[in-house]
Specification:
Blueprint: H1 5-8, H2 12-20, H3 26-44, E1 47-50, H4 52-68, E2 79-83, H5 110-117, E3 121-126, E4 138-139, E5 143-144, E6 146-147, E7 150-154, H6 160-167, E8 173-178, H7 184-190, E9 193-196, E10 216-221, H8 224-234, E11 263-266, H9 277-291, E12 296-299, H10 307-329, H11 336-346, H12 350-370, E13 376-380, E14 396-397, E15 400-401, H13 410-418, E16 422-429, E17 435-441, H14 447-461, E18 496-499, E19 506-509
Helix pairs in contact: 3-4, 6-7, 8-14, 10-11, 10-12, 10-13
Amino acid sequence: MGSDTDLISHSAVALRAMIAQRAISPVELMDACIARIEAVNPAINAIAATDFERARAAARAAEDAVMRGVPLGPLHGLPLGVKDLQDTAGLRTTSGNIGRRNHVPAHDVALVTRLRAAGAIVTAKTNVPDMGAGANTRNPVWGATGNPFNPALNAGGSSGGSAAALATDMLPLATGSDTGGSLRIPAALCGVVGLRPSPGVVVNSARPLGWSVISVLGPMARDVADTALMLRASAGFDPHDPLSCEMPSLASPAATVDLSKLRIGFTEDFGICAVDPSIRRSFRQRIQALQGLVARCEPVSLDMVDADRVFDILRAESFYVGYADTLARAPETLAPHVRANIEMAASMTLADRAWAHLTQTRIAQRFARSFADFDLIIAPTSPLTPFAWTTLYAQEIDGQTMRNYYHWLALTYIPTLATNPALALPSGLDEAGMPFGLQLIAPLRGDARLLAMASAMEQAFASDPALRRPRPDLQALRTARPELRSIVTHPPEREVTASDSQGDATVTAV
């Protein structure tokens, strides 16, 4: 789609090297990305607010720095998409919420400050669900994001805009965040890489509960090397985030890993997750392929029977802290499913919270023990192929009714509870012809080794058309789809009322 297609299809690592070698100009790269956004975004609606004038000015400054021979940061001149939950100075940050539609922050969040300091150029905000709640990117401010492989289907969430923009080469790098799978689900559904780091690896100065480990920020990119490049620029201690820490192992590219020596444990469902039969079949095909490449590839058993209730409580606690004031001040600005999470928290007791934190600790310990036998645990990332974006969430999987709007994310929120780093790796197409993503889970603080193991697997898959990263048909994205911008109000207040399996809380799931 245009003469710059070859340029923007290069990896971020390659583009950064080309900038340093003066083979391309940051201005040339920025213009190519903006041209791609203008050509493709009307078809998928991945981009929210844009900052093209300042981005072009920053690209000119980056070009001048190259020509003057000054030291360049690791992301120098690379256009960056920032998830619309993360504040960007002077650029609208709405969280997809009608009460914040005109919010223009005065300051960047710490992560964006760090990425700018590394040389990245903030180019645009990427679309999210309302307040980031749920795994279908649609909201009353910007509308819905369509999947680049079929815009009638959803792109996942809550980092759906970032994933779709990367898949179509609008941007070489984008930020994401992850509580129950918000990085990993959209990466898997759009055919890109998303890393949920160990808590504290990437600074999160905006986290209301400073010691909570369930919500993290992380990098998204088109391949593992680009993801590692962005993580190195993001990681490090920040006094405003009490969980943040230095990780020397991330200071330089990770050493290579011999795939043939890896011990892999795999699970289709962690023993409790609903998974569509077609996804199970696709997963088994990948496991069969891996069994011929690694030292061991065996089933792993983990006792996760209490995971759903633990996640209910910890998620509700997080939502209460983040949005209870808004519920009291302007309840009409909150979507029904956001209000439901806050109300769930109000019904819980200190005993509930203590039980949840105790049980989460035990879950983390079970995962830790499993890594005595395995280097890596692999599971599917999404339990089903992308569904229509007009359907807010998956209400049923393989005959099992979902308890609420996030229950279908159990495959990703279980590793969240364990606090392990987890990476969504593209691995061909599923039976419906949509991207399939493997979820790779490593020991806590093993982020650098996780990236190295993912890279080895990515390289092994690259020669197999059935396993390598799929690419969307850009020619099919030439037609604008105005319907994606048509979400102007919240969905109906009540569609489904579901109680969790323990009967401790009721959620109005919309």
